[in-house]
Amino acid sequence: xxxxxxxxxxxxxxxxxxYGLPLHVIxxxxxxxxxxxFREVIGRIYENTLVCFAVKANPCRGAVRFASSLDIGLDAxxxxxxxxxxxxxxxxxxxxxxxxAKSDRYIETAVGAGALIAADSDWELKLVSxxxxxxxxxxxxxxxxxxxxxxxxxxxxxxxxxxxTKFGFPVDRAEEVIKQALAAADIDPVGISAxxxxxxxxxxxxxxxxxxxxxxxxxSLNLGMNLKYIDIGGGFPVSYLEHDEWLAFQARLxxxxxGRLPPERWVTWDNIPMGxxxxxxxxxxxxxxxxxxxxxxxxxxxxxxxxxxLLERQTSTGRSVRDRLHELxxxxxxxxxxxxxxxxxxxxxxxxxxxKEVSGNHVVVLELGIVNHGVMLVTADIFPVEVYPRLTSxxxxxxxxxxxxxxxxxxxxxxxxxxxxxxxxGDLLIIHHTGAYAADHFASNSCGFPxxxxxxxxxxxxxxxxxxxxxxxxxxxGTICS
Length: 482
Ligand SMILES: Cc1ncc(COP(=O)(O)O)c(C=O)c1O
What we know:
CATH class of the largest domain: Alpha Beta
Radius of gyration: 23 Å
Number of helices: 16
Bound molecules: pyridoxal-5'-phosphate
Largest sheet: 9 strands, mixed
CATH topology of the largest domain: TIM Barrel
Number of strands: 18
Structural class: alpha/beta
């Protein structure tokens, strides 16, 4: 965890007084620092790289404005994200429009602005071509591919480029799709793209993706495409835990799944096996070596380190990725990090409602809620957590975290987290690394709770409200008859 200093802590208390709890706080200098790490790698290894901030990681105008101030591009997935990018002055050349179900308005706006459109399906190629004809503007198009042999290398609930995915064109149709795009009227196929999922901790996933994309790039050139871009998507990981914590967690979970721990020493709620599901299911049959599969919480290549690894590694041809890119005419490499730019920049502060004992375990109940549906979309992360203020009498203790929604699945953490002490009602709990997805995926008016405020703290100490806290009128403001 990147610890908050005492000044930040005091500031969070102050902000909580002003904007209420729960509260999401983003420290923008941390975003700038993360972007700076990508820049450093790019400058050193392959300058022709464009960083596009994945707005979905924190979709609000403030985040888009800050991305614009850093002079980086944008990965949009909706007409509103695109509009925000354009309004905040991001160069359309630096905006990639993703999404597997683009609306007519989204396509029209993208074509009109001259943004890059990652075409996801046959019908989309046709719609983009029609819009280009109508607007008399040749749309620059990337062809998004999926269906690669990446099983086991990306988390199954977050894999977006394997055979079973709703995204992109199957890679085994590549030749036909490229020819179709080259023959389509009014569009300009300028590149290929893919996105393999989020929190890709295992570098082998990216290694394999890159082999596919370099081969596809070569194929596209041979078929006559003017290959200006290769877009490898987002997914650059964040280490939520230290390496030894991650190993210790896995070891303890295995002990638990093997039935060697009493429930009060379990590390996951209700004995959920997480990445050891396969092992747990086959355990009865015996003989299976435990292997963690799916989303991990530590990576040897966090953020920009993954890009560095990827560009420098040797491909199957014996040449490095960087050299192969140059052999393809040095196309612009697009990366679309969301989590790696903003995840570690945000914290969530919530008030402790009380502590319960469940099956011999501490459960800290927070005035904070997540939504079942959100949990089904993306496996929650293992967040570093602390009770504030820290006291000299603090003694570390492990606990699960529960929310306040009236649904049993509303657990903020189904993995036991280490707290500096057991909190009391009214204490402030600070959850780290929640700048990406957490503040929005899990936000809804479920059970009539209002969406919390989201504020940014800039380097000079200025505070900017990125989303104001909802009030009663926003949630129960009445009905509209039309
Ligand atoms: C197309 C695309 N690009 C980029 C991202 C950002 O991913 P991450 O936040 O893991 O970098 C996503 C998120 O899933 C995505 O769907």
